[in-house]
Each structure stands twice: as C-alpha cells, then as structure tokens.
Amino acid sequence: MLLSYDFCVADLQGPDSPSGYQCKPPKTLTVDDFVFSSFVAGNTTNIFKAVLTSAFVYDFPGVNGLGLSVGRLDIEKGFMTPFSLFTKTLKPGDVMVIPQGQLHFQVNSGNRRATAFLACSSPNREAQLLDLLLFSNSLPSDLVAQTTFLDVAQVKKLKVRFGGRG
C-alpha cells in the first residue's frame, strides 16, 4: 500500500532549503503540530508602536510545504509607517491585498489599538522596515544623505535613533 501525504510538518532540527524543511516522520506528529496558539496581543511599546506576531514556518512548523504563512500585527494608536502609494481606511471585516514586494504603510487613525491579520504566499516571509534599512546600518551618512535627499545632520540624527553608525 502506498500512501501520499498532503502535508509536511517541518522538522526544524534539519536544514532549511529553497523547497522548505524536511518533513517530520508522520508517526511522530500530534495535533499540536497543526495548531498555533500565540496570536495574542503583542507589546507595542517600541519606537514603531507596532509588533508583528508571526506564524511563519520557524514559528509554526505545520505551515511547511503549504506555500503560506500568517501573522498578527498589533498597531498602537498613532502608529504610521513611512510610505504611501494607495490609501484606504479599512473597516472591521475588510480585506486588502498588497502585492508581494510592494512598499506599503499602515496608520492607526483610531482611538485605540488596531489589529491586522496577514496571510503571505510563502512560509518564510520577511518584513523589511525602510527606516531600519536606511538608518540602522554602517553606511557613511553622506552616502545615505545623497540617496534620501536629507541633509547629513538629519541622517546622523536618524542613525542615532535607529542604532546606525557612520
């Protein structure tokens, strides 16, 4: 008898590869391999006033091989990310699609914390925060100033805030 499985719970002890992790032996699986219980409100007392709780393959091995991952984004009142192309005020129950790799932003314009749930088309999504990319590095401040059209003093101020040097 030949059995085919439609799932592959990640064996995080093994190597990761472009096609994902190796599968745990099916006989060792339990229901807990398919349940993620950490979607609770996160700590938003940070410089960004937001926190992402990820259920990516290294957090939730059950999504291995499914071509997706999910996350919970808690956004404190006043939170805003720095980029804008399209704007829309979402209401409870709304869904918005953001193309893969598209720069986007969120603003919590309400009077209390907001929560967003994410679904990504890959088990190992990464978020790149533009502020951190630009100002938490060791690139020379004059080079960053040339590429951002900010003056060197402002770049240095932002590098201090985001932990960069140079």
Walk me through the structure.
- One of its GO terms (cellular component) is apoplast.
- This protein has 2 domains: 1-126, Jelly Rolls, CATH 2.60.120.10; 128-166, no CATH class.
- The protein is 15% helix and 12% strand.
- It contains 3 helices and 3 strands, in the order E-E-E-H-H-H.
- Helix 2 crosses helix 3 (152-162).
- The longest helix is centred in the C-terminal third of the chain and has 11 residues, at 152-162.
- The radius of gyration is 20 Å and the shape is globular.
Estimate the strand proportion.
Answer: 5-15%
Gross morphology:
globular
The class by helix and strand makeup works out as: alpha+beta
Low-confidence stretches: none
Task: Give the distance, in angstroms, between the N- and C-terminal Cα atoms.
Answer: 64 Å
CATH fold label of the largest domain: Jelly Rolls
Quickly count the domains: 2
CATH uppermost class of the largest domain: Mainly Beta
CATH architecture heading of the largest domain: Sandwich
Helix % is 10-25%
Q: How do the helices and strands follow one another from N- to C-terminus?
A: EEEHHH
Subcellular location: Secreted, Extracellular space, Apoplast
Binding site for Mn(2+): 104
Domain Cupin type-1: 37-156
Pfam families: Cupin_1 (PF00190)
Brief account:
This protein is of the alpha+beta class and 166 residues long. 15% of the residues lie in helices and 12% in strands. The longest helix has 11 residues, at 152-162.
Comma- or semicolon-separated keywords:
about 170 residues; alpha+beta; Jelly Rolls; 2 domains; three-stranded antiparallel beta sheet; 3 helices; globular; Germin-like protein
